[in-house]
Amino acid sequence: MGNRVTNPINKFFRINKAQMSVVIAVMLVAILLATTVFFWRTSEGFSKSYSETIDKKSYENIATYLENVITHNEIAWIEKTLVETNITIPLKNDGINYIGENELFKITYVNPNLINVSSKNPSGSIVDSKDVVLNTRFYIDGDYLIYSNPTIESLKDKNIIGDFFYYKLETQIADRNNEYIVYLTPTFKTAIIGNAGQPPESLAKSCYLVEYPKTNWREYYDYSTNTYSVYPFNYYIVNVKDEGIDKRYISYYTNIIIPSNSSMLDALSQNAVKGTVQDYIKNGGSLIMFSQDPQEKKKYDFLPTNIIFDKSYYDTVGVSKSHNITSNIYPYELAGIYFSAEGTITQPYFDSAADEILLRETPYGDKNNNNPSLILSKWGSGKVVVTTIPLDINSVLDKSVLICPWWDDNWHFRRSVEIDPNNVRRINEPIEVIIDPTEELNALAKAGIINLETADLDFDSPRVIEYIAGDCFDYVEIQSQVYNYRPNMESSGYKNSPIEFHKHTISFELASPSDIKLEMKIPVGSEYKDIAPSIDTDFTIIINGTSFPMKWDPYDGNPLGGETKFSLILNSNYFNSGDNNISIIMDTPPDRINTIYENVLFSLYEHTSSGDRLFFKEFPKIHVYFPIGATDTPSTKGAAYSRTLPGQKRYYDVYYDIVENGPKSVPTYRMLDNSVSLSWSLKVDDPYMFPLTVYNGTTVGVVQGEQLPRLMNVSSPTTGDINDDGIMDIVIGLRNGKIEAINGTDRSIVWQTQVVDLIPYVDSNKLFIYAPVAASNPAITDLNHDDNYEIVAGGANILTVVTQSGSKRSIEISTEPTNVSIIDASTGTVLWKFPILGSMLSSPAIGDLDNDGYEDIIVVDTFFKNVKYDPSEKTYDKNSKIFVRNNIYAYSGRTQEKIFEVTGNIPSFPIEYFGYRDSVSPYIPYIYITTNAPIIADLDGNGLNEVAWGAIDGTVYAYQSLGNNWRKMWQADLGIPTKTPSRPLSYFISTPSRAKTDYTKSYYDLIVSAVSSDRDNKTYLKTYILDGLSGEITLLPNITSELDDTVGGHPIVHSPNGFHLRGAQVIIPSGKYLMFQYLDANNVLNNHYVKGEITQSLTPSFTYATPAIGEINNYTAYSRGKDAFFSDIVIGAENGKLYALSYRDTTSGIDNGVEGVEGNDNDKLHKLWEYSVSSPIRSAVNIDDIDNDGKLEIVFMSHDGILRALNVGYNYSRWNYARHDYYGTGNTETNIFPVSFRFYDPEELFAGDSSDPYDDNFRILSEFDIGAPYEENNFGSYVTNNWIKIDTNHNDQLSDELVIYTNDLFQIDVKTNEGKIVTKTFALDSIEGDVLVGDYIVTFLDRGGIKLFDNIMAYTSAPTRNIQIEEGIWVNLDIPNEIGEEQYIIQGLGDSIRIYNPQNPSIEYMRELRGTTVYGTISSTSKNKYIVITSYGAYLSPNPQVGS
User: Is the whole-model pTM more than 0.70?
Assistant: First the structure.
């Protein structure tokens, strides 16, 4: 393997001979450097200072050489590929099947998208077989069972030892023996020794440490059952006791972790396993060992070095200095770092000069084991990490903090929050953060600072302060809205409710066990009931994992209202000193559904003979809503700071208080305000798709434009910052074939683009007149995630054919093929198009269907023909029927190629379903083209997207991918209407919405409305839940509505937060009503529905529009009463009015708007305002802040072509697309690209238990000073000077800080806003590394990193034998082994190179890199010194390339 030193370079330059000049340049630099270094190395007599200057100059030249090597070789790089990650298995024909195998698998060809994989054990016997689909993963466990494309849950507690991706099947030419080649890619991960089926705490914590992305600890530990679980997706788990370590799989382990208290140490010492582990380390693998039980320490004799834990008076870690772990480098230098819990480090003790180094510590108190640890490292090679420190997850702290002075001392509590936009550009985006004050307020009560009995949150008090660009002295108060949230407790039959409504857990501490009274409080205005068939249903109580023997049945009977309290006494023998938890589980059978306790909070009392003492009390969570962007306060940043770019974090303090500290006034932006006013209007469109002109036909004569049909469809505006100027723009489709972009602030036209071309009319024996229409709902999206937007817009090409026979004139209308256009959002240039057969005037759905990282486009079109009429008559031709069909198309946003296309059925209907005529001359004909749109949703719970749509043939179709092929998943036939309507229908089957209707399901269901006729020959609008997995149909009967006028817009789904939350509801316009119904797959809540008249007046009107949900008015936290929070509905009607309605989730029934009194239960749909425009409003409105004033505007276009923007309330919610989001879900809870945010408490100080050497908790999140002198540390060659620094001034720099020692004392004074000063003095012990931004420690050894907090470490392997670069360029560096008889180290730090003397680290040179990155570490003493150039960075490595 060592002979392949220069072959990779030659290979690449043979491929590209034109780059030979690069080789010459690199050689010249190397010769020059070698000559210079030779002169320096042979010169003597320099002074020490001058010698150091020469060394630094040499380092500078080496850095220049490295940079030139990287720069000149990068151009030879072809593509990014990892070595030995591609497993190729040829398949040969055995006369029956195509079969191939290697030492791991036997593979049989099934079809182009499917293979059958059989696993082999070490003896070569077949153990298990599974079918594997192309572009999916399969996993192998320790018993060699196969898991094909599994769910996360199915891998729970499995010993997964292999993870492979089937990504390619290559067909060979016909005359070759092996007709196919299967390509598999294995995944390299950390391996953890343990039994996943029975994971101890140490295994679970080790798994947590290597998990990425970081998951919540509670997924690994269940307090209620005191059990641990693991989900091996980001690591392997190897059960050594059962199978040993399979040599065939060990090369895929980037490092191996042995958890604390491992029960498999003896198994590791068995000869076969021992040899495997030793070979792994010798070949560059990395081994990490966490602590053993201090009373059961064992010898690590499976290592290739002598490491012993001495159980005697001293805890000792030793290593043989003479042992050579690998053959890649010369005899190594030991880099040892020693830790202890209480800073009792002694100097290294050498038992003998040559063989062994022992590092000892003085015992602490009566504890013999004070957690010694040792890290052994050889530059650039594998590592052995040993520690006896208990792994404590609470000590792993990986967050930085921003701590600013208090904004206002009248407030007493604050939470800091950091908002990360992730990789999405955001403009004034409203967000929600949730503060749970329960833990903090109970801690203050325990300290005697507040009175728990009387403490109550002040919901007028929350304020949001933004620190602009993280500057504590440049801040703005952001307008915000607040709502208090309290959960219900409901029987398990309420499947539509969140899971927290069925199980509630309380965590608390006790100084000593005692009897406890558990109290449940129902507040004023809330309901509780337990009626037949649910009567006598109970709660199950689990205390610290043990079930309480009796059930709790607080109440039996009919509904009553609060305030009410129920309580239960729990015996002391169930509790512990320290941490405790109580789980209250509503475990009634699913068929017992009439038990509910609304808006509960729990309290705990110490129950004694002398009375009950309150010691724990739950407080409502505070939901805070505010925009990350502009504000209208005097310090407004306006457009300059409305935009949040990818990676640009924003920092806020959220202040709140309790009533006892003095009630806070209501800010002006929360004063009740239901006003509406016109911001601007603009004529952008005409209601005529055929211009009102005169058409002269040779045969047919003169045709007046007013005789031609008019289109009822109107585009719904979409908003977004299309040109990246920080101002929202409006994009809308017009009925002249154009798409127009308008500046939201000044109404100027940004651009206008023709997407459907006007075809000149054709005059022959018939007159052919074409109308280009672009009245779809445009989507603004980033198809390729390059932070530049594209716009997806559809259209229609409407053909009218005029014939004349004598005095009889006939006109026929049909759709012609057209295109869907993809437009450059900043310029309006059409980038590309794809063809469709009909018209697309609905909303495209945008999402990644093929998992290639790009967004794909899905549209549904409508094709129709044979719409005939005589312009002199009042009706359409009743003797002809219209033929209609829907088709669906999916196109790749990356390749622009078709993913799939499905052509629908073509039924026929009376023309009145799609059009009508004016009753007075000239009997203008109107047509409405159905607006069915697709939806993207995970319908089977596998984490992949499926597509569904409702078609004109009365059927809902769901399609899923199987490899690269799309097939029908299911179809649900809902029927079609047979009675001719009086007005056109906007759909037969609505666009589906998605919703979670059952908390026990892992997938979404679909909600659809359908128009159909029953045996009574009446037409009804019915709404259904369709099971996402099977398509099973469930009717919601109470909102079935007889259609007296028309079917309205499409259904949407909303989950109202707040006081009466019971899960998602569907909102459906039908005739003059808006209908509301809970979405419960078990029909539990079907008896609770609301039908409210849209106009809320004595003059009803109907609508074609789809409602939009938002929060459009201002109010205090208490003025909403029983309103369903964030449930204002904005919808237009045919009477030319726009209505804003506040939904009040109260009693069931009908609200016709005449008897309602605001705040009364009968006022279920309260009208906030109406706005008249005297022209029908048929499309969904847009709700967004389009002018950067911190307030919302409602943007809509009426039939007359006038676009308007109305001023309403503040910006706390958004509806900026016709279907709410680009998946087309119609669900307000959908957030495709959410922001990330994290809280930290800037006043928190948690130092752990100083009397317990095992307690390594240590957090400082406040401003502090360290009293250490300006001196260098005394760690000598073991720790370099720049390894121990702390960023005390939070400027993200370490160069201006003090160097500190272990055992240095420093004092922290924290002044709480309650007026108390907390003083703490600490000895800084056991800290090694760079303390970054004041809270966590990182040391880089080689390319791997060890993250430490006190004594906790996590490890990422260096590029060893197990992770190699295949097609990168391996350059054998021509650099000297010494400079001036001194060794040196080269360290890649990403965007810079550091070269330094390990014996005197102050002699160093840093080179900042531009346009490239370098990682890894090599020593000048390494036998081999390489730099590997790849397309994703360069890597320093001592290992020659290892490959096949």
Answer: no
